[in-house]
Amino acid sequence: MTLLKRMYDWIDVRLGARELVDKELFGYLLPRNINVWYSMGSILLFIFAFQVVTGILLLIFYVPDSEKAFGSVTHIMNNVPFGWLIRMCHVVGSNMMVLVLLFHMISVLFMGSYKRPRELNWLTGFIIFNLVMGISLTGYLLPWSQLSFWATTVATNSVGTIPVIGQYLVEFLRGGKLVGPATLGRFYALHVAVIPLTIAALVGLHLFLLERIGVSTPPFGLKDTKNNWQSDKFRYEGHPDGIPFFPNYALQDMTSIAVYLAFFLAIVFFDPYLFFPKDAFIAANPYQTPAHIKPEWYFLANYQTLKIFPSEFLGLAVQGVAMTFLALLPFIDRGNERHPLKRPLFMACSVGGILLWIGLMIWGHYS
Amino acid sequence: MENSSRRKFLGLCLGGVAAAATGAVIYPVYQYLAPQAGSSSEKKVVIPEKDVPEGEAKFFEFAGASAVLIRTRQGGLIALSAVCTHLGCIVQWEKNKQEFLCPCHGGLYTAEGTVISGPPPKPLAKLPFTVENGNITIG
Question: What is the ipTM of this complex?
Fold first, then answer.
């Protein structure tokens, strides 16, 4: 203990570690009525770090070559000790990241935390959400299975409905007229370098904004649930009578991560192929389209929307409008009320929107 | 007193769980990264006698490392590890001088693997072999 204390003292006199810990951990006060939904961000940070680590481990054996990719993934699954575990963690983790991200966004929506002065928090979070969808899509191609190949063919093809530049965009995305070795090369670069680095940078910005602006107060259990922000000058939203982040809320974060891990490991060990249709186990064959090729669950609503409109362009345009609306929500919904039960229009639209999304997903699955 | 012993007990339990969880993560990751059995095969290598003419050397892989088979001008066969004993570079056969030269730091060995000059601290390791029906079996 003396040695540890001496090491801490050594660092403290050089960096002011004690002052930093007092300010950022014990002195970082959070609202008294903070709830479990505020720990979604910590779970997401944990998942992202976990995906990076399992992804780096997979890179050791994965070969990004259309002739060898499927074989290398099969080798990881069947021959490398615990290769199946590393890959399953990466696959299940990617799905769980999208799911937890949706919970995080829904909680922010319902608690009105996106409202001013936190427009930039919402916007950076929304961009991260899109990048997570992008990293999932690009990662989907890498095993070079029938599922990877044809799901990517369908996904990239939908861009072709954009007038004038659509066809060129499809070829640009694929690196050629059809999905092929060139597509694997660029998706690989996007998946392992460009998108993760961008996500990491944006997560940093997201956390900086959180720290700089201050944590929002949940609207539950309070008499005044109005947003009292004043736009005349910058004010840090502190919570002088709040609870410390450490140890109080750090314990909640750890508990939430443990609960998440319980669900995550239950899938990994008891239903590992939950996210694998049978086409995921067949090597890609560009001359044989499998019947009923479907995208991942989180793209099913987009897939079904494209199908129900008479023109694909209309289907794509509707999705573009919906996503733009969601991205700009803090600038559109400028009301001061934050409690969801006191915002009937918001409640009707958001619950309706979520039900519509789930409905389209189920429809897409069974269509 | 009761509180402090309970706290100590719970702390120990938590430490135990954390240690078990750490072990459960480290063990598969270590196994995943550890060299796989069979990747550096200990299998015997068979080379036809006619592939090694007099004064020539044949390099091959043996037990996951580089090895060399030489037939001297006098007709004798020698099987050696081709890994220089200095810093692990692969030696080259100097046919004219009938010597091994390590190009990394100039280590010089005789055809039998004995150090002539340079930094190598030990001779090249000898490998066992047998000759039968026109085939040389190393290992």
Answer: 0.89
